[in-house]
Here is the input.
Amino acid sequence: MTDTAFPPDWTPDRTFGDGRVGLRIADGIAVLAIQIPDKMNALDDAATGGMIEALDAARDKARVLLFTGVGGRAFISGADIGGFDGPQPTGQSFLDRQRALANYPLPTVAVIRGYCLGGGLMTALNCDFRLAATDASFGVPAAKLGISYGSAGLARLVECIGPARTRRLLYVGDRVDAATAHAWGLVEHVYAPDALWDAAMAMARTIAGNAPLSVRATKATVADLLLPESRQDPGAILALSLACRDSRDFEEGRAAFREKRKPAFEGR
Ligand code: COA
Here is the structure.
């Protein structure tokens, strides 16, 4: 049985990828949901293409993006295994589309219930951070299928949980629960299933109310710091800091502090 109650009251404003991806934008918060619950939100080529279109559609209309999977049983159960018989999405386009998610300028938060496997875990790791329900489970069953994820596929996992836990997860090919994922640093927060969505929205509202240039500068700065030193661009990062210092929002932030009121940031 498919539990369609997650996210609660889910009605997308627009859909992409032949309906596989839904997008809802309100109050500066974009929610992008993979909505193929009968297939545990397995990603085929249309779904990853729809994901890119939805990200493009939200880019200038929101301040934060929640990425989730409809139905409550799975965030994403990986690439659609049927697609391994054809050229997509397990080839380059899957990785290119993952890269586009990782490099997306808005802050992105993965909101995870149920299975988060393989390419689904890759998708979650390409969001800025992860909130999970206690019913979430995580794994990369590559060795059970006979595939290798390659450097691009494993880079974020090694960065996040380290080489030994990555090896353990892939050699064994099993799933770890949300508590283990939390202890490993794979997810930042864990909530009861019925509390997850409200917690995610509360965090999204806070982020959306903060100064957009500051948040985006942090995203770019952290990404730059993760590059090898030879590829870091301290000049570009300094320019982002200066843009914040010279922004109207910085004036507004200081005025709001002085006047003991909530700032109203404009993103400029
Ligand atoms: N690709 C294609 N179809 C998938 C899928 C995937 N990655 N994951 C789940 N599905 C489909 C199942 O085939 C099934 O379809 P059916 O109803 O037509 O038979 C449906 O989703 C429901 O999944 P089911 O296996 O019945 O649910 P379950 O609760 O017993 O197990 C999983 C769920 C996710 C543990 C199991 O489906 C699974 O192991 N999927 C593959 C995960 C994987 O290897 N991902 C990595 C790919 S890189």
User: Anything to note?
Assistant: The pocket of coenzyme A is lined by residues 39-40, 42, 77-82, 115, 117-119, 141, 145 (CB under 6 Å).
